[in-house]
Amino acid sequence: MGFEELTIVLTAIAIGSYFKGAVGIGLPTIAVPTLAAFIGVEHAIVVLTIPVAASNIWICWRYRKMTSDVPHLNISLICAAVGTASGTFVLASLTDNALLWLIIIWLGLYLLILAVKPDFQLKGKAAKRGAPALALFGGACQGATGIAGPVVATWIHSYRLQSKTYVFAASLMFLAISGTHVFAVGGLGLYTEDRIIQGLWAIVPTVLFTQFGMWTTPYISTKWFNRLVISVIVIMWFKLIWQAVG
Fold it and tell me: Structural domain of residue 151, as residue ranges?
C-alpha cells in the first residue's frame, strides 16, 4: 500500500472514529468499504475488528454510569453476541464479491428504512419483543460483513434517547458484537501476524478521534452529524455497487 492509499485509509478511520465518538456510529460503516477497496473485504473486516472493539470499550468506559438508562439491555447483549458468532462462519465461507454484495444490501436497507420510517419509535411491548430479534440480526450482520450499524443505529435510535445515552447504548451493543467478533474471527484462524499488527496500529487514530468526537457531542447537533453520516453511506453505497459490478 503506497503513501496515497495509506493516507486515504487513515483518513477514513479518523473520520469514522470521529463520528463514532460524536453520534455512536460511523467507524466500520466508513472504514470497511474504504479499506476493502485496497486490501479486499475479508482482510478489511478482520483488521478493523481490533480498532472497532477498542473504540467501543473506550466509549463504554467513559459513559459507564448510563447503563440504567438503556432499555432491554441484558437480553439484547446476549442475542447480539450469539448473532455475531453465527455470522462469522458466513464470513469465513464467502468470496470477496459475495461479501461486497452483502454490504451493499445492508446499506441499501438502512437507507430505505430512513426514507420510509424517519420518525418511527419503538416502545412498549413492541420494543421488548423486538429487541432480541434486532440484536441477533445486528450481530449476524457484523459477523458476516463487519458492519452492524444499519441495524443497530436505527434500532437504538427508535428509542429516542438523549444524545450521550444514544452514543453509549449503541456503543455498548457494538461492544458485545465487536468483542464476540474478535474471538470468533480468531477461533476461525482469520487473524495473521500482519493483520493483527495492522489492527493494533489502527487503534491509535481510532481512540484519538473517538475521544475528539465525544468532546464535541454536547456542542454539535446530532441531527447534523446523522445527515453527514447518511451522505457518506450513500457515497460508499454507490462506490461499492460500481466496484462489485465492475
Answer: 3-245
Residues 185 and 144: their CA atoms lie apart, in Å, by: 10
Question: What's the number of domains the chain is made of?
Answer: 1
Say which DSSP state 219 is in. Answer: T
What pTM value is reported for the model? 0.75
b vs e for 198-209, b when ≥16 Cβ sit within 10 Å of the residue's Cβ?
A: bbeebbebbbeb
pLDDT in tens, the chain (246 residues): 677 778 888 899 999 999 899 888 778 878 888 888 888 888 888 899 899 999 999 999 999 888 888 877 788 888 887 877 777 776 666 666 776 687 778 778 777 877 887 765 667 777 778 888 878 877 777 777 666 766 777 778 778 777 888 889 888 888 888 787 788 888 889 999 999 999 999 999 999 999 999 999 888 776 776 676 677 667 767 877 887 786
How many angstroms separate the CA atoms of 47 and 222, rounded? Answer: 29
CA dist 129 and 115 (Å) reads: 24
Distance set, CA 148 to CA 1, 110, 171, 215 (Å): 27, 10, 11, 24
- Do the beta carbons of residue 30 and residue 205 sit within 8 Å? no
Own/partner contacts of 10-16, CB < 8 Å, gap of 24 or more, are: 10/205, 13/51, 13/202, 13/205, 13/206, 13/209, 14/205, 14/208, 14/209, 15/209, 15/232
